[in-house]
Amino acid sequence: MQPNWRKLFLYNDFRDSPQKNTIGFALISRRSFVKLSALLVSGANTFLASCSTLLWKGSSRPFAPLNCPSAAGNKFDYIIIGSGAGGGPLACNLALKGFRVLLLEAGGEDDPCEYYVPAFHARASEHEALRWDFFVRHYADDEQQKRDDKFVPEQNGVLYPRSGTLGGCTAHNAMLLIYPHNSDWDYIAEKTGDESWHSEHMQKYFKRMERCEYARRAEEPDSRHGFEGWLPTNLAEREMLLRDKVLRKLSKAALEESLSGIINPIKRTLLKIKTHGDPNDWRFIRRRPEGLCKIPITTRQGRRAGAREYILRVRKQCPNFLEVRTHALAKRILLDEQNKAYGVEYISGAHQYRADPRHGTATPGTVETVLAEREVIVSAGAFNTPQLLKLSGIGPREELVGHAIEVKVDLPGVGENLQDRYELGVVTRLRENIPLIKGMKLRCPAPGEAPDSQFSQWLRDEGPYTTNGATIALMKRSFPERPDPDLFIFGLIGDFRGYYPGYANNIARTENAFTWAILKGHTANTAGRVTLRSADPRDVPDINFHYFSEGTNAGEDMESLVAGVEAVRNIVRLSSDVIEEEVLPGPEVKSREDIRSFIKNQAWGHHASCTCKMGAATDPMAVVDSRFRVYGTRNLRIVDASVFPKIPGFFIASSIYMISEKACDVISEDAERIQV
């Protein structure tokens, strides 16, 4: 019999032992860069060892009781569809402001062991109780699409893991929380003419939500970290890296690569010392730095932390203000003759959506209707939000008519502008096994089975399972003229080649595989689309990202990725004493043209966004205004990844969390002006 994982690891039941995470960066001489480089590279052993003298253990404090409002009515002020990074925190924050909120989640509330253990995030994404399986196209051209090793002919697409559970994709993501670039917010401010989106104003939302457990409070005025928010952030145990000789050598090579081509190296090195290489430190953020950085993750005492934990806390302590209905698949938004949203029609029942792996055994659901006194807010994500709008009669006229859907608002931008990162994996085989993962099973123990040593460590809030598998990270400009660093390169323990059915089982097949993941930020392709397959809300929509040759600005993104592969190959060359060979792309991929072909065939993404973009009223493809309101409607907003006009930062979760916080302010302001 499996343990009751929620009982063991429920958010409010975490032990209040000190967090084992650390921060710190080696002190480096301020002499000339030549001497600096020589010191850092040839004396890298000293560099890494010296980190241990500067380690500072953070602290994990218990949450104070929530300040719940005193009274609630018997009607819902707001209905929010979707409990992920956008909708979940928004529901909680509105409830804490005294509004009565109904949160609808199409998935369930299952909590297997894989949910809690950070290192098992890949297994969480393939757990049938948590997952929705989308199969997407990267190309319309069949021959090009079939060149992808991850293509599944039976599904006519490539697996794109999504989460159908409370907390949305924050229930299976890799938990990285990296602050977006300031240019992302400034772009929205410019395009909408709304200065409240300017980066100087947006930073307060990150600080409001963050509960930083690794930085020193004494540095708060300069670092602008938040310490009282609802979202705990921590770092991987740096002691693990220092103790493992293989990972230590790989880190040296990454360090040397990070110094090559860097602009103002001495100035930037001093900045790294001052900010401890923390990508969420404001001093670091505003300088657009390159080079090695730390990897903040959303964990608390070694357990995943995210939207779900916040929802559970608020629901438990303020039940009169937040009601959560799971297994509630939204069918359509109810609009009156003036296109005012007044409610939601949904299908009540488990496994109703056809992306759910257990849909085939589901019993038919029942159709329910719920009404909102104030507004309906859609937070269903970049695929399901445009699908729901179209099913409700909001979208491109021609497409809606083709599916016999009554056109309420002709909005041609709904489902267009789909964007994503491009990602690649350079997989290597090491000359020896990684000591840190000796005997690792990378899974939860089966009933009656003794856990591996790493799982036993995790039960004590320590060891490699407390992190997400990312050990080393660096930010880099693919070319000097890029305004922001656009490559995020990070080392992962295991063999990771992208997403395909069963990929989680293959990551840890051997103890000597190491992957350098390359993530291309600020991608230029806006040609992706989400279109209806049918008028049935249970059907998954058609999704095509139209990569590279089928997209926009294909050459710019391609050349940046080629530069990323070349940077990783330089790291591999510098660490040839521990790396036996490159497995993927492999030695047969030699020339830049070979690399381009590899990228075109094998790239993937996992940060879908921008399908209901924010823009000015003069933009015919804009779907929402700067206050998240859907054009052509009343009392209807969208708060999720779909509203970005351009995909922000490196990892999208932080940006979604931030706009969720902003949306709460905007909605509350409007509520003060409008009495119901």
TrEMBL record:
<feature type="domain" description="Glucose-methanol-choline oxidoreductase N-terminal">
    <location>
        <begin position="381"/>
        <end position="395"/>
    </location>
</feature>
<comment type="similarity">
    <text>Belongs to the GMC oxidoreductase family.</text>
</comment>
<dbReference type="InterPro" id="IPR012132">
    <property type="entry name" value="GMC_OxRdtase"/>
</dbReference>
<dbReference type="InterPro" id="IPR007867">
    <property type="entry name" value="GMC_OxRtase_C"/>
</dbReference>
<dbReference type="Pfam" id="PF00732">
    <property type="entry name" value="GMC_oxred_N"/>
</dbReference>
<dbReference type="InterPro" id="IPR036188">
    <property type="entry name" value="FAD/NAD-bd_sf"/>
</dbReference>
<dbReference type="GO" id="GO:0050660">
    <property type="term" value="F:flavin adenine dinucleotide binding"/>
</dbReference>
<dbReference type="InterPro" id="IPR000172">
    <property type="entry name" value="GMC_OxRdtase_N"/>
</dbReference>
<dbReference type="Pfam" id="PF05199">
    <property type="entry name" value="GMC_oxred_C"/>
</dbReference>
<protein>
    <submittedName>
        <fullName>Choline dehydrogenase</fullName>
    </submittedName>
</protein>
<dbReference type="GO" id="GO:0016614">
    <property type="term" value="F:oxidoreductase activity, acting on CH-OH group of donors"/>
</dbReference>
